[in-house]
Amino acid sequence: MRTEEFGRDNSEVIILLHGGGLSWWNFKKEAMLLKDRYHVILPILDGHGGSGNAFSGIEKNAEEIIGYIDRDFGGKVLLIGGLSLGAQILLEILSQRSDICRYAIVESALAFPLKAENTYIRPAVKMSYGLISKRWFSKLQAASLRMPEEFFEDYYRDSCVMTADDLISVLEANTAYSLKDGLKRSQAKALVLCGGKERGAIIRSARLIEQAIPDCSLEMLPGLYHGEFSLGRPDEYVKRVEELIGKNCEHK
Question: Which of 80, 47, 49 shows the shortest CA–CA distance to 65?
């Protein structure tokens, strides 16, 4: 598993898992704000630009990250956060290992299958995949994500190297995932974040996740769309991290 790391000399570890179709730079700004106090690790999920591996599923990605934490950090870290696909992988991690982190931030995760949508993914990607290399098409996609302009070149580069098979696998896994019973045993203090402008399935999922994790709170983010919080409001995201952990630090 390939990672980008910040603040290596710090003992407390935070792992942030990017959204589908993005990469480690999803949380680059948050890492820069946190690196003076924490060791921040930004994995590149399988199937995404720079990972070097094909996408093998949400469960396999979760197992890989658990193995990494076991090998390098004695089986536990301070906090794990994730956006969308990354949040689904986080939920799977919490299901498989109840005590792997003290805190968790779950942003915009889909928590139940969308069967009809899943059925059309493969033909839709096969028809449209050739457009991914077109800058104008990537511009439209980035705009739909409310992505800050400074991330566009990273997004375009990584979109161009994502294979059709990986894109299909990511989208199919995303729309087929459902919460596991093991989540009810999670010991993490969790915060679920959901944009007020999210699609109905994500809002419903946020409420299901809040009910599934024993020590959990839900924060609705008025006026925000899918992924807009961590991508576009890093100062506010870091504030939530510090509030969850229980430390009040000023960020310049």
Answer: 80
Six token digits for residue 42: 């930004």
Reported as a single tens digit per residue, the pLDDT across 136-185 is 999 999 998 889 999 999 999 999 999 999 999 999 999 999 999 999 99
Lay out the sheet containing 13-17: strands in order across: 3-6, 39-43, 13-17, 77-83, 101-107, 189-195, 216-221
The pLDDT tens digits of the residues spanning 113-123 come to 999 999 999 99
Provide the β-strand partners of residue 41. Answer: 5, 15
The CATH class of 3-111+179-245 is: alpha beta
What residue segments make up the domains of the chain, in order of their start?
A: 3-111+179-245
Backbone angles phi, psi at 74, to 5 degrees: 65, 20
pTM for the whole thing? 0.94
Distance CA(41)–CA(15), nearest Å, equals 5
